[in-house]
Amino acid sequence: MAVQTKSKSEEKGPKKNINWTQVGVIGFCVLIVIMCIVSFSGLPNAIGNLINGNGAAGTGAVVSGNPVYVNYTMNIGGSAVFENAMGFFAGSEINQSLYVSVDGYEYPFVVYPTEFNQISSGVIGLVPGESRTVAGSGSDLAYQMTKEETETAGLVFADTNVDDRVFITVDYLNENEEAAKAYRICVVTEKTADNLTLQYGSDTIDIKMVGYLTTS
User: Fold this and answer.
1) This prediction's pTM
2) Are 118 and 206 in contact (CB under 8 A)?
3) CB 120 within 8 A of CB 134
4) How far apart are CA 213 and CA 3, in angstroms?
5) How remote is the C-alpha of 170 from its chain's centroid?
6) In the Cβ-directed half-sphere of 125, how many Cα atoms lie within 13 Å?
């Protein structure tokens, strides 16, 4: 179990198997994640052709079905924990988590269906360049860890404080039905003399409508 650099500062979804023996602390570098290619089920294969930043289709407000490109930032406790960009069809919904590849990291980042669906519906009505904040996956996605559990996970209880960030690994099956791991960022939202509360559900998501995309 490797403990990495700790940084100050901060997600709901289906409860996966959380591997606390692989808890580590992650720094602000994870925030600088731009233009990652997203692969996910439940949307047309043409989505791959959207992520190119070219072929603006208009300047008016987004309606359901428009191919759009957005930036989004997930927040916990008012601070950003993950920033990314992706193309999709506005109003599309999924019922399975997305696993977003991040350059420089061994595991992809998990985006829960609730989060994607909020982004997808939240972009409707925006014009290019306009932003909006929507609800995230839920602040009820959190874990309480005793002092002993914290130490077992590799964190020093005395040195772990409110607003510190940690990441957890999430087990899932990839597109080849093989066992794989992804990660979520947690934020320490409460500390008592004997317990830590780690929240991994995003409170809010900031979305920015970058522009329209073509499907060919």
Assistant:
1) 0.76
2) no
3) no
4) 41
5) 13
6) 7
User: Which phi and psi (to 5°) does residue 28 adopt?
Assistant: -70, -15
Instruction: Tell me the C-alpha distance between 136 and 153, whole Å.
Output: 27
Token pair in block for residue 79 = 């601070």
Hunting for tokens 């995003």 — which residue is that? 202
Q: What is the DSSP letter of 195?
A: E
User: Which two tokens mark 11?
Assistant: 């997600």
Amino acid at 107: Y
Which two tokens mark 5? 């650099």
Output Rg (C-alpha) for the chain, integer angstroms: 18
Q: At residue 47, what are phi and psi to the nearest 5 degrees?
A: -55, -30
pLDDT tens-digit profile of 70-98?
999 999 988 899 999 999 999 999 999 99
- How big, in percent rounded to 5, are the helix, strand and coil portions of the chain? 10, 40, 50
In this predicted model, what pLDDT tens digit does every residue of 147-167 receive, in sequence order? 999 888 888 999 999 999 998
Number of H-type helices and E-type strands within the chain:
3, 11
Collapsing DSSP to helix, strand or coil, 13 comes out as: coil
Region of 190 on the Ramachandran plot (φ > 0 left; ψ -120 to 50 alpha; else beta): beta
Helices (H), the chain: 47-50, 113-122, 147-152
Alpha carbon distance 180, 59 (integer Å): 40
